[in-house]
Amino acid sequence: MECYIRGILNLKDNAGRLYLLDHYTMGVILHGTREQIARQELKKVTFDLYDGAIGFVNIRNVHWKFVYLHALSNHIYVVDPLQGSNEVEDSRKAAYKFGEYFKMRRNRLGKEDWVSIKWQPGKITHTFQKDATSCGAFVMQMAKMTVKEFPKIPKTFHIKSSQHLRRDMAEEILRGSVSKDDFCSFCGIEDLPTTAVDAVWIQCETCGRWFHTQCLGMPAARIPKKNTPCYCVLCILTN
């Protein structure tokens, strides 16, 4: 999940002002004991260099929620893609937890960043998941929309049907992953195993990514001739 959002952040000009908090640390801050929280000091992070923070929190290993700290307005949002929860109350509890967390950092590290912020609960309207398995995809889309709107606060999260959502997100992750010039965009490896008979490379005419023909299941007879354009599956699907 963090990998997907990191790719989105890398495309945003002012993304350096938005801190991505990993889901483990987020879960400890919101639901951990004092001892557990004390081990998540993030001593190398100076939050005053940021105007906000985003992340995800896992609930009992079965559900995901999106968390957004907007330091410019002192608001915090806990957004649940599953209908029925009290998001304002969840945000109020999160505001208290983060207030205590930053005080802990001041006491242990002498850091004053974000200590003076009086966090207020907020609420962002949004569509809800219609099944029991789409929470992860939904919160990732919420985070994506937040990054695109930043430093503004999204007025609403309108997420379309998840029918093609996972495929579209997988394509985005692949496009923002390994170097397209040095590694196969299918297997992510530079060289094939020594047991491979041939290590033939082909390049997509549209996106410029390289692929091992063996990874594509392409027999020698189907390998395009020199100067013959070739198109990868991702570009064919999106065109």
TrEMBL record:
<keyword id="KW-0479">Metal-binding</keyword>
<dbReference type="GO" id="GO:0006508">
    <property type="term" value="P:proteolysis"/>
</dbReference>
<comment type="similarity">
    <text>Belongs to the peptidase C48 family.</text>
</comment>
<dbReference type="GO" id="GO:0008234">
    <property type="term" value="F:cysteine-type peptidase activity"/>
</dbReference>
<dbReference type="InterPro" id="IPR019787">
    <property type="entry name" value="Znf_PHD-finger"/>
</dbReference>
<dbReference type="Pfam" id="PF00628">
    <property type="entry name" value="PHD"/>
</dbReference>
<keyword id="KW-0378">Hydrolase</keyword>
<keyword id="KW-0862">Zinc</keyword>
<dbReference type="Pfam" id="PF02902">
    <property type="entry name" value="Peptidase_C48"/>
</dbReference>
<dbReference type="GO" id="GO:0008270">
    <property type="term" value="F:zinc ion binding"/>
</dbReference>
<dbReference type="InterPro" id="IPR013083">
    <property type="entry name" value="Znf_RING/FYVE/PHD"/>
</dbReference>
<dbReference type="InterPro" id="IPR011011">
    <property type="entry name" value="Znf_FYVE_PHD"/>
</dbReference>
<keyword id="KW-0863">Zinc-finger</keyword>
<feature type="domain" description="PHD-type">
    <location>
        <begin position="181"/>
        <end position="238"/>
    </location>
</feature>
<keyword id="KW-0645">Protease</keyword>
<dbReference type="InterPro" id="IPR038765">
    <property type="entry name" value="Papain-like_cys_pep_sf"/>
</dbReference>
<dbReference type="InterPro" id="IPR001965">
    <property type="entry name" value="Znf_PHD"/>
</dbReference>
<dbReference type="InterPro" id="IPR003653">
    <property type="entry name" value="Peptidase_C48_C"/>
</dbReference>
<protein>
    <submittedName>
        <fullName>Uncharacterized protein LOC117560893 isoform X6</fullName>
    </submittedName>
</protein>
